[in-house]
């Protein structure tokens, strides 16, 4: 089965940047429709960005213009570049193929001064 390993989270001040990575194994990565999700304490998990196998990206309104999703098919990796971070971006971030049934462990992002 396909597996997802997220990394790159941490503590950052408001206005700062982080780059998340997600290593994918167990499937033909290049054909996967990938997405990044996040779940804040007490809230439902939500999708923040997605990228098709062809590289077309889409974003939630709350992150449009600040986050950039990309993929490197040679490295079986999807990235999420997050700029101008806000306290409301604090959450555990997950990546997953749209079609996958299982989640990775996620990576914590905390935006605080």
What is the gist of this entry?
With 113 residues, the chain is mainly beta.
In terms of topology, how is this protein built?
Elements: E1 3-7, E2 10-12, E3 18-25, E4 34-39, E5 46-51, E6 57-59, E7 67-72, E8 77-82, E9 91-97, E10 107-111
Parallel strand pairs: 2-10
Antiparallel strand pairs: 1-3, 3-8, 4-5, 4-9, 5-6, 7-8, 9-10
Question: Your description of this structure?
Answer:
The protein is mainly beta and 113 residues long. Helix content is 0%, strand content 49%. It has strands at 3-7, 10-12, 18-25, 34-39, 46-51, 57-59, 67-72, 77-82, 91-97, 107-111. The protein has a 6-stranded mixed β-sheet, with no helix packed on it. It has a 4-stranded antiparallel β-sheet with strand order 1-3-8-7, with no helix packed on it. The radius of gyration is 13 Å and the shape is globular.
Strand tally is: 10
Low-confidence stretches: none
Strand order of the largest sheet: 2-10-9-4-5-6
Specify the biggest β-sheet. Answer: 6 strands, mixed
- Described by the principal axes of the CA atoms, the overall outline is globular
- Tally of DSSP helical segments: 0
Oligomeric organization of the protein chains: single chain
Beta-strand level of the residues, as a percent range? over 45%
Q: Give helix and strand order, one letter per element, not per position.
A: EEEEEEEEEE
The average pLDDT value, as a whole number, equals 95
N→C terminal distance: 40 Å
Range of helix content: under 10%
Radius of gyration: 13 Å
- Tell me the structural class: mainly beta
């Amino acid at each position: 089965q396909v597996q997802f390993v997220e990394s790159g989270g941490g503590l950052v001040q408001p206005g700062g940047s982080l780059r998340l990575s997600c290593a994918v194994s167990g499937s033909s990565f290049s054909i996967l429709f990938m997405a990044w999700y996040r779940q804040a304490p007490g809230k439902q998990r939500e999708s923040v960005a997605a990228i098709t196998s062809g590289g077309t990206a889409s974003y939630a309104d709350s992150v449009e213009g600040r986050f950039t999703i990309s993929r490197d098919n040679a490295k079986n990796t999807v990235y999420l570049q997050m700029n101008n971070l806000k306290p409301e971006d604090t959450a555990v971030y997950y990546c997953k193929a749209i079609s996958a049934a299982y989640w990775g462990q996620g990576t914590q992002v905390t935006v605080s001064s």
